[in-house]
């Protein structure tokens, strides 16, 4: 028996994400906006934790020298 | 009984170093990592990578989870060509997928100071699922979990 498929798009990225090539970013949990940008995961995480007042209120992501494109 | 979750692949455009562009469909997914002993949690994006034997994450994440990175013996992880990185394997709780719809399991991650992009590999990720299926034409991938194996 197969549960009903869940077709979702979990990998929403902020609209301006392609500005941050080869950077680490911290996004809000809804993945709508970039909160912090930096060259190392450590600096981004520490700034984001301070900004959001918690260790788990944002998502870390490395933008690997490429551009996101979205299919309709 | 199985549970199927379908996600959209993300297309990323890479320079081909010849004036053109290469389109690559990536299975990138949000994971939540938790060190239950220290009550520390982090959310991070990772690539689903069938070419990786294990889960490979930057060592900083271990630090951020309050895991004592070098409390275990180092292990060599080999990759493309002669490349080799030193990593430290630790157990974590991993939740794969967006908030409220994730699959959660205990797994192991090799943390390395030489890794930047987090990777979800064969041991510790793929083996947690019944099927991991990439469908490039429809730009989707599917994770199928065999719930009958869960206690």
Topology, element by element:
The complex is a heterodimer of chains A (72) and B (151).
Chain A: E1 6-8, E2 23-28, E3 34-38, H1 41-52, E4 58-63, E5 67-69
Chain B: E1 2-8, E2 10-15, E3 21-26, E4 28-35, E5 40-48, E6 56-58, H1 59-64, E7 75-78, E8 84-96, E9 103-112, E10 119-120, E11 131-135, E12 140-146
Parallel strand pairs in B: 5-10, 6-9
Antiparallel strand pairs in B: 1-12, 2-3, 4-5, 4-8, 7-8, 8-9, 11-12
Written account of the structure:
The complex is a heterodimer of chains A (72) and B (151). Chain A is built from one helix and five strands, in the order βββαββ. Chain A has 72 residues and is α+β, with helices and mostly antiparallel strands. Chain A has a domain of 47 residues. Chain A has a three-stranded antiparallel beta sheet with strand order 3-2-4, with helices on one face. Chain A is globular and about 30 Å long. The N and C termini of chain A lie far apart (31 Å). The relative contact order of chain B is 0.26. With 151 residues, chain B is mostly beta strands. Chain B has a single domain, classed as Acid Proteases (Cathepsin D, subunit A, domain 1, Beta Barrel), CATH 2.40.70. Helices cover 4% and strands 53% of the residues of chain B. In chain B, the strands form three sheets. In chain B, strands 4, 5, 6, 7, 8, 9 and 10 form a seven-stranded mixed beta sheet that branches. In chain B, strands 1-12-11 form a three-stranded antiparallel beta sheet, with no helix packed on it. A two-stranded antiparallel sheet of chain B has the order 2-3. At the A-B interface, strand 1, helix 1, strand 4 and strand 5 of A face strand 1, strand 2, strand 4, strand 5 and helix 1 of B. Strand 5 of chain A pairs antiparallel with strand 2 of chain B.
